[in-house]
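Here is one record:
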Amino acid sequence: MVRFMKIDDAAARLEALGNSTRLKIYRALVRAGHTGMPVGRLQERLKIPASTLSHHVKALVSVGLISQVREGTTLVCHAEYDTMRSLVDFLVAECCAEETQCKGAQSAA
């Protein structure tokens, strides 16, 4: 299923992932799977001060790449896989569109 994404939304998401700390956070959450990861464990794993982690998590939430859910007293972060897939689809949607023989477009999607 091809998901439509506006270029401004794609740019904002790519900009958010352009920061190495945010990219580390995002990759850790993608690796964690659908169960997500508590903020405390994320902080321990990445060795990021709480205030710094909060700042970067907020940036990722604001562009829809991750979400947070309160489970009792624990705040759990989750990667938004549909948004991730939409961003990847956006990046490869026009791969080799102007080339008659494209090598790799099918494998990238």
